[in-house]
Amino acid sequence: MTTHTNAPLPTNEAMRPILEMRQVTQTYTLARQKLFEARPTLTVLDHIDFDVRPGEAVGLVGESGSGKTTLTRILTGMEQPREGHVLFDGRDVWTAEPSHRQLFRRSVQVVMQNPRSSLDPRMRLGASLLEPLRSLRIEGDHAARVYQVLDQVGLSRNALERFPHEFSGGQLQRIAIARALMSGPKVLIADEPVSALDVSIQAQVLNLLKDLVRDLGLALVFIAHDLSVVAYTTSRVSVMSAGRIVEIGKPLDLFTHPKAEATRNLVGAILTVESGLAGNALA
Ligand SMILES: Nc1ncnc2c1ncn2[C@@H]1O[C@H](COP(=O)(O)OP(=O)(O)OP(=O)(O)O)[C@@H](O)[C@H]1O
Asked: What number is the ipTM of this complex?
């Protein structure tokens, strides 16, 4: 990151969360097993409380099927919870007036696991960066915004004429982050943002996310199954298991004194896999 025009914002525990879930429960109705029997329901999220403040990076970890993707879909407004509330800047996004919902959509952006599938292969980078401004109907000096965001993610202007296949995996994830930043979000939700990348370039993307939190005062929600990458990037981690948050703690405490069985399993998984990032997180 090359711009440091914005002074770092203090992360204050007394600050109001910018995005929060209160007692969110999500159930899905499954196919009927037998004729004349009621359709069974599956509780995927069970009374979840979760929040993030400006300038704070929080993690969400859990084994496969624990409910992370469902939580992400609800946190971004793609899915409405069966029970509970999603609040952006203190107001329920499902009952607020359209202008607040529009602000919520611009202000909460997602970076997905695989940047190749989130970018149109036929679009040059410049067009790709402009697209969120058009779809979200954001007015203003679009060219200036493109240059500002390129600078924030450490990409040069001559990249604007290139197509996705001309970039490496790490550069593509940088571009995906740039696209997410175009609308000037307050919250970035990174869903497994480095698990498709070589270990050698994972740290660059993780450091970029950390810089954005520090320099822009972004709120970051980092979702992954690997506790070590989440620990490297965040200051508070929630552990999910079977649709519930079973433990919340500082990364170091979770590593050294895991209480829940799900946390112990995640720590055990790291200890059995050689990982340079785990060492960084503990340093
Ligand atoms: N639309 C749906 N209908 C029925 N069941 C669903 C639906 N979406 C998710 N599930 C189920 O909900 C549970 C949680 O899924 P989810 O994808 O949220 O977990 P996850 O932690 O993101 O897993 P992974 O890390 O493997 O992506 C799983 O048992 C899944 O099969």
From this structure: 0.93
What is the distance between the alpha carbons of residues 72 and 76, in angstroms, rounded to a whole number? 6
| Distance from Cα 69 to the centre of ligand 1, integer Å | 7
Q: What is the pTM of this model?
A: 0.87
Q: Is the backbone of residue 116 left (phi > 0), alpha (psi -120 to 50) or beta?
A: alpha
Q: Is the CB of 73 under 6 A from ligand 1?
A: no
Residue of 44, 76, 266 to mutate, ligand 1, most atoms within 8 A of C-beta: 44
Mean pLDDT score of the chain, rounded to an integer? 89
Domain 19-282 has CATH 3.30.300.20: no
Q: What is the largest CA-CA distance in the chain?
A: 65
Task: Kindly provide the residue ranges of all beta strands, DSSP E only, lying in the chain, ordered along the sequence.
Answer: 19-29, 41-52, 57-62, 83-88, 91-92, 108-111, 187-191, 219-224, 236-241, 244-249
The crossing angle, in degrees rounded to 10, of helices 199-216 and 142-153 is: 120
- Tokens linked to 229: 């990458």
